[in-house]
Design a protein that fits this description.
71% helix; Rna Polymerase Sigma Factor, Chain: A; Arc Repressor Mutant, subunit A; 8 helices; 2 domains; mainly alpha
């Protein structure tokens, strides 16, 4: 069975049993969503890469120590780790002007980016860029819920727990975020048609 066909649980078992391919499979499966969820919070490519690496260092340590609670919710768990690292970064930044670097482990050494046609990549990148710009215009509380829900695939209960609000508040923020994005997209379409 190919790595892409294995479940998260199977890939985790593979990695814990000593096969690095299990971790590679998990990273390949989720790197885009995890990186994007971090980038949208920090708005800095290099910082996002650092936090992405730190996130996987924590994931690796937790898996190796056998402390991962296998609930079949790998992606929300990793996004929660990343979100906490983003919060930690900003807390440290307020106290000290320096950013602590990772311990030399480069997670990007094992990433393999799929080849795609230049045209489809350019269209995809422009669409993502436009959407990221619109997401950045949202109020922070709406942006946070949208990122956790869409990129982190977290449930509203998980989002409510992480952000320390009620489920209804999390749902309301998501509804406002989507409404605001719709208005922005509609405004952009009008500008393109008129312009």
């Amino acid at each position: 069975m190919k790595l892409e066909q294995k479940t998260d649980r199977e890939l985790i078992r593979l990695y814990v049993s000593g096969n690095e391919a299990g971790l590679e499979g998990l990273i390949d499966r989720y790197k885009s969503k995890i990186y994007t969820s971090i980038y949208l919070l920090v708005k800095d490519e290099y910082l996002a890469e650092d936090i992405f690496q730190d996130t996987f260092i924590k994931v690796i340590n937790t898996l190796r120590e056998g402390r991962y609670n296998d609930e079949g919710k790998f992606l929300p768990w990793v996004v929660r780790i990343a979100h906490n690292l983003v919060i930690d970064h900003y807390r440290k930044e307020r106290r000290a002007p320096t950013v602590v670097n990772a311990d030399g482990f480069d997670i990007f050494d094992i990433l393999h980016f799929a080849d795609e046609s230049m045209e489809s990549r350019m269209i995809r990148e422009q669409t993502y860029k436009d959407l990221r710009k619109m997401i950045q215009l949202l109020p922070d509380d709406q942006k946070e819920v949208l990122i956790m829900r869409h990129y982190g695939e977290m449930s509203f209960k998980e989002i409510a727990d992480v952000t320390e609000v009620s489920i209804n508040t999390a749902l309301g923020r998501m509804r406002y975020a989507l409404n605001n994005l719709r208005k922005m997209m509609y405004g952009k379409e009008l500008a393109v048609r008129i312009g």
